[in-house]
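Final report, closing paragraph on structural work. Over the funding period we assembled a curated collection of sequence-structure pairs, and we close with a single example.
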Amino acid sequence: MPENLTRREFIKDLGKLGAAASLAPMVALGEQSSDKSVGLKRPSFIKEVDKPTTEIDWDLMERMSERERTCRRSFVKYVGQDRLDKLTEIRNQNTDKWLKEDKPGYTLKDVAIKSGSGSGYMSQSYLGPQSAKTPEKLGVAKYSGSPEEALQILQSAMRHFGAATVGVVELDAHTEKLIYSQDPDGKYMQILDVDEPLETDDTRVIPKKARWVITYTVQMSQETLNLAPTILGSQTTTLTYRRARNIQNRTQEFLRGLGYMGLGEASTNATGIAPAFGVMAGLGELSRYNRLLTPEYGSMVRVFKIITDLPLAPTKPIDAGLLEFCKRCLKCADHCPSKALSFDTEPTWKTQGEWNNPGHKAFFEDSVKCRNYWYEVGTNCGICFAVCPFASQNLASWSKFRNYMTATVPGFDKTLVSIDDLLYTPYTEFGKPQKDPEEWWKLNLPDYGIDTYQSVRGNS
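Its predicted structure, as stored:
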């Protein structure tokens, strides 16, 4: 029983749930597919909006250097070399000790599958393979469909390549600020009035005519990430990033075959701020754990970007009640072993450190605390993703009911969290996986541990 809900209160709320559940046929009617966004089918209770639910002050927003400001690349700047050396020693000692102790989630088979998950991917580059024959080479005119038609075929192609959801952000004086000023590998990102993209030893040039940022998600395995923070749990993230590299390469070649450029991420988390582009593209809303939270897959996605000059119909931000839900739900913060996540009741303009980009209201995280814990457990953790109430697949009637109530009845959020505690979060001990890692090896999971039909079936 959750500590913040007495048995009497819980039974009372279950009564309310029973009454609400009797409206299930009406909820089903509310889940008729909507095609307000071209090619993106969603329940009608997910509203398209002109502005994202995250408040933005574009005047305060600035282009930031991924290389010099994020904890991913500049952790040593925030903790110092001595501390980093000590953390590295702790990580190596812990993982070696747990391997020899045969600790579940850190055993030899777990380490081996992590190695396998990190293999078998295409190389990643800004300009792409550039091997597809262009329309000019084929002796035909380049693709000339309308922006809506172009979006439709792009989404169809990318879904076929393995993307989960696909949206588009049009670059303007505001959204250009979401492009990094400097990529993770140290190259400066310039947006110039030139005909062709350019890459040198220290610079990448984005032509001003490339106005559209294709933003897409790739599913992670919810069943596998339940094993966070172990090595076995973290390898689903590794696998997802490797699959995304293949999707990027194939999309770059698809765009080249149509007669257009596809400027991809040259390395992990490059080009621009992924959660921000995901929010602006309407793929989800910004969450308490300060990452993208989606209606289709909850927290079980990673987000990627490709810039193109193919004119595409932009997709609009959405309001699915997710940010409002996060204001009342504290599960990710409660379960965070490093206490890096915010317990505030409302998002704030005040950042936690230089690693946060100003100019928007958010539940800003303490990335230094988070990264310290990564070294302690020897992985990228992921507990905040795993315990999110929306991490569960949207296949059960309960999930559909939860999504509908989240979008339409905000006052019911705390009850939904309490039910999720009972159904999906048996353990509250810091750093303990929600399921037994040894049992994972006995499961009969689908390909990649994900259901590729999930969003289609969920909205049919």
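Residues 31-391+426-458 form one domain. Residues 288 and 326 are 6 Å apart (CA to CA). We thank the funder for supporting this effort.
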